[in-house]
């Protein structure tokens, strides 16, 4: 399904223009893979001032091969972010960048965009310059940056793989962690104190809005909390911080996880981290006790909870138009009047919208 298939008659940005508010927020989205693609596809409906900060720990498929053979940053998630921000996501250049070679030869399994990024990085000698050059080719709305200039490795403590369920085994590598049949308890990065991309920390420091998630929780979302300078930037930025929860648990990595459990795990990895809002799909958490549990878990992050319909009907994918509308609603609400408010899990969606759905707009600077 194309981005055009989801497009509503009026986007949040167009509504802002009609209401006289033309100031686009500066938005930074953090994540990787399909989750970040969904966020970026939604974000470009709200603003043109977008920066994607992407995980760089992939070790599988085309990305893993290029990382191993060329010593470069794994390009796959970076390429997907560029494609999401391309001027025409269904145009020839964007489709070509996403095209994956078939067959059984040396190119089999490689994406064209991965190879282009590999070549640009060698010619220009700088992965960020390579990303900027490819962004120019695709005429992207915004910028794509790696979270670290160093390729990282994810290591996890996983239980349920031994006869004694209390015993954990160390699993190394993003693909291995994402597909483990056991229960992931904690993840680490190797090296343990990696540098952050200066451009990424600067973008976060100057952002109006920071969006974290959705995505693979242990391999695309939490890793941002494990890069010290990136985490410091996230803690000290004055931006409105929004955490978007996944619509469903993922087989292997988060099998059996509730929405509440996702929040607890993030808090365990970053106990001093706080966000302003947690955005949860209303269809994935039934009204009543489960929503109350989510609201209590969000208190560990000192966050409000907003329940909204953000899913494509009958799927576990975010609908770009619905997600854009929900994000626009959350990030534009007047902060001083709502300071300290918590949306209780027992409130029906209509009441959530009545609390958050005023016409008032705020200035971003």
Automatic annotation (TrEMBL):
Q: Name one Pfam family in it.
A: CofD
The UniProt annotation puts the region (Disordered) at 1-27
Q: What is its main location?
A: cytoplasm
Q: What's in the keyword line of the UniProt record?
A: Cytoplasm
Please note every region of biased composition (Basic and acidic residues).
1-21
Q: Where in the cell is it found?
A: Cytoplasm
By sequence similarity, the record places it as follows: Belongs to the gluconeogenesis factor family.
UniProt function note? Required for morphogenesis under gluconeogenic growth conditions.
Could you identify this protein by its name? Answer: Putative gluconeogenesis factor
């Amino acid at each position: 399904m194309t981005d055009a298939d989801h497009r509503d008659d009026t986007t949040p940005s167009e509504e802002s223009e009609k209401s006289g508010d033309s100031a686009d927020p500066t938005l930074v989205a953090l994540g990787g893979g399909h989750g970040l693609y969904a966020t970026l596809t939604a974000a470009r409906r709200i603003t043109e001032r977008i920066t994607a900060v992407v995980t760089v720990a992939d070790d599988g498929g085309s990305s893993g091969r290029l990382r191993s053979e060329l010593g470069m940053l794994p390009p796959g998630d970076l390429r997907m972010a560029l494609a999401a921000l391309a001027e025409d996501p269904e145009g020839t250049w964007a489709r070509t960048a996403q095209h994956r070679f078939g067959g059984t030869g040396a190119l089999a399994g490689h994406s064209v965009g991965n190879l282009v990024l590999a070549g640009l990085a060698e010619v220009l000698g700088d992965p960020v310059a390579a990303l900027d050059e490819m962004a120019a080719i695709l005429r992207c709305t915004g910028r794509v940056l790696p979270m670290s200039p160093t390729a990282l490795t994810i290591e996890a403590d996983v239980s349920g793989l031994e006869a004694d369920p209390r015993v954990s085994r160390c699993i190394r590598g993003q693909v291995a962690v994402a597909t483990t049949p056991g229960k992931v308890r904690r993840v680490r990065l190797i090296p343990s104190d990696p540098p952050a991309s200066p451009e990424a920390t600067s973008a976060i420091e100057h952002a109006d809005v920071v969006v974290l998630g959705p995505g693979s929780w242990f391999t695309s979302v939490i890793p941002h909390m494990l890069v010290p300078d990136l985490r410091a930037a996230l803690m000290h930025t004055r931006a409105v911080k929004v955490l978007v929860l996944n619509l469903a648990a993922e087989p292997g990595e988060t099998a059996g996880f509730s929405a509440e459990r996702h929040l607890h795990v993030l808090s365990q990895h970053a106990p001093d981290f706080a966000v302003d809002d947690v955005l949860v799909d209303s269809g994935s958490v039934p009204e009543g006790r489960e929503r109350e549990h989510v609201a209590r878990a969000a208190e560990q992050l000192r966050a409000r909870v907003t329940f909204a319909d953000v899913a494509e009907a009958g799927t576990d994918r975010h609908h770009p138009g619905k997600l854009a509308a929900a994000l626009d609603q959350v990030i534009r609400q007047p902060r001083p009047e709502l300071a300290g408010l918590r949306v209780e899990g027992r409130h029906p969606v209509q009441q959530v919208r009545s609390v958050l759905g005023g016409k008032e707009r705020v200035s971003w600077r």
